[in-house]
Amino acid sequence: MRLKVGIVDDHPVVRDGLKLFLDTADDIEVTFSANSGDQALNFLQSNMADVVLMDLVMPGPMDGLEAIAEIAKRFPRVRILVLTSFQDPQRMRSALRAGAVGYLEKTVKPDELLDAIRQVAWGKTVLEPRVLKVLADGPRQTFLVDPLTPREQEVLQALGQGLSNKEIANQLHIAEKTVKVHMSHIFSKLDAYDRTQAVLIAHRLGLLSL
Fold first, then answer.
1. ∠19-20-23 over CA atoms, to 5°?
2. 163 and 124 in one domain?
3. Which residues are CB-contacts of 129 (< 8 A; sequence separation ≥ 6)?
4. Is the pTM of this model over 0.85?
5. In CATH, what number is assigned to the domain containing residue 41?
6. Which of 40, 106, 130, 174 is the most exposed place for a label (fewest CB within 10 A)?
7. Rounded distance, CA 44 to CA 78, Å?
C-alpha cells in the first residue's frame, strides 16, 4: 500500500520540487499540495493523507503552527512532519506541542526525508540530532521524585530509539498492552504528555544519551 502524503508550503518551487521528488518513490503518493494551512485543511476534507509535510511560516489566516494544531484535532490519524528552515527552539517546541511528530530542516538529504516520512507513518517520532540537541538544551537534573523501575527504563531506552509500542513489545518479549501501561507510568513520572516530550525530558534528565 502506498503512503499518501500532503505538502504544505507557501513557496511554489519548494512544493513542486518536493512533489517531483516524492513521485519518484514507489511507495509514496502525493495526494495534495497546499500553499497555506487553511488550504491544507480544505484539501484534507477530500484528499486524506497519512503524512503531511508542514512548513511553519506561511502567510494567510493560518500559519503552520495553527494548522498543525487544527489538523491534529480534526484529523488525529494524520501524522505531521515539520519541514522548515527555522531553527528557533520555541517554534520547535510549539510545533511538537501542537501535534507534530517530526521536525526536519529543509537541508535534510533526500533519502533521509523519504526515510523520515516512512518512519512517522509507521508511528515513530523523527527528530534530527541537531534539532534534538536544541530541544534538549536546558538545566540537567539527576533525579526523579519517583524513579523509573528497571523495566520502565528499558521501555524508555526503546522509546528513545524511536520504536513503536509493538516493536518495543517484541524487543522486550512482553505484551503490547503491558508496554502501554509502562508508557503511562513513564509519562506520569516524567510529567510528559506524549512520546516526543518524554524523550526530550529524559535527555535533559540524563536518562537518555544524545
1. 80
2. no
3. 210
4. no
5. 3.40.50.2300
6. 130
7. 9
**Per-residue pLDDT in tens (0 to 9) along the chain, 210 residues:** 789 999 999 999 999 999 999 999 999 999 999 999 999 999 999 888 999 999 998 877 888 899 999 998 899 899 999 998 877 777 887 888 888 888 998 889 999 999 999 999 988 888 877 777 666 665 444 456 578 888 999 999 998 888 889 999 999 999 999 999 999 999 888 878 788 878 888 877 778 765
C-alpha distances in angstroms, 126 versus 43, 119, 123? Answer: 25, 7, 10
CA distance linking residue 203 with residue 206, whole number of Å: 5
Judge whether 210 lies within some domain. Answer: no
Q: Is 86 exposed, middle or buried (0-12, 13-18, 19+ CB in 10 A)?
A: middle
Give the residue numbers spanning the domain of 157: 150-204
